[in-house]
Design a protein that fits this description.
EC 4.2.1.17, globular, 2-enoyl-CoA Hydratase, Chain A, domain 1, Lyase 2-enoyl-coa Hydratase, Chain  A, domain 2, single chain, 2 domains, about 15% strand, lipid metabolism, 11 helices
Length: about 260
């Protein structure tokens, strides 16, 4: 990885991967190079069969990510901005499409594209000092990293409309009350809590967890009948797997399972 992003592995087997945003001098503002680094890191994680959960964190104690690098963009021509667009999209889509559960650990500011990186995760844990928001309309654009689609799916149309149209910033507890983030912990401990949750996830069947995420993601925007068909398809993928056989055997033998992961 580059100096902008790194991947750390935790626990026995390194099944928990931590994707660390590491551009502290710019509060992790997403430059072109940073976007490319995130896209490359998520591609690597998606292809790693040993990874069972991902934590997205930051080295900066006061900022998860402050969004797009507007200093860089200030010098862009229209053609340069157009050229950057697919690179930025690949970064956000890379987080969103991780096949294993992703947990954002947010301390400090998560604004604009930074908040969109967190929203691209399955679970968002915030320190109580966190501040989140999508202020893009205040600088003449719209959220372009998935925010207009992901936030309404979390909080509903009207709450998302208020957050996006007013460009307001929200303290962690207010964001949690709205459903924009999932859990608030003591300041400075979001990473610790996210790693704790990821370790729990990683202790379970990798086939089961990946299949559950796939069923939820694929069924989200379908009608109920279609969603249940997707669920049945993914159930079959687990029911006849080595993980199911091991899970049932371990339960009956009163021992911890040793997941074959297939």
């Amino acid at each position: 990885m580059t100096e902008l992003v790194r991947i750390d592995h935790h626990g026995d087997g390194g099944h928990v991967a931590e994707l660390v945003l590491d551009r502290p001098e710019a509060m992790n503002a997403v430059s072109t190079a940073m976007a490319q680094a995130i896209a490359a890191a998520t591609a690597e994680l998606s292809q790693d069969p040993t990874v069972r959960a991902v934590v997205l964190s930051s080295t900066h104690p006061r900022a998860f990510c402050v969004g797009a690098d507007l200093k860089e963009r200030n010098s862009f021509t229209d053609d340069e901005l157009r050229a950057q667009r697919p690179l930025a999209q690949a970064a956000y889509r890379g987080v969103l499409d991780l096949p294993v559960p992703a947990i954002a650990a947010v301390d400090g500011y998560a604004l604009g594209g930074g908040f969109e990186l967190a929203l691209s995760c399955d679970v968002v844990v915030c320190g109580e000092d966190a501040v989140v928001g999508l202020p893009e309309v205040s600088v003449g654009v719209i959220p372009g990293g998935g925010g207009t689609q992901l936030l309404p799916r979390r909080v509903g149309w009207s709450r998302a409309a208020q957050m996006i149209f007013t460009a307001q910033r929200y303290a962690a507890h207010d964001a949690c009350r709205l459903g924009a983030v999932d859990e608030v912990v003591a300041a400075g401990t979001a990473r610790e809590r996210a790693l704790e949750l990821a370790t729990m996830v990683a202790s379970h069947s990798p086939v089961g967890v990946r299949s559950a995420k796939a069923a939820m993601r694929r069924g989200l925007d379908t009608d109920l009948d279609a969603g249940l068909r997707i669920e049945d398809e993914m159930w079959a993928a687990t029911a006849f797997s080595g993980d199911r056989a091991e899970g049932v055997a371990a339960f009956n033998e009163k021992r911890r399972p040793v997941w074959p992961g297939r």
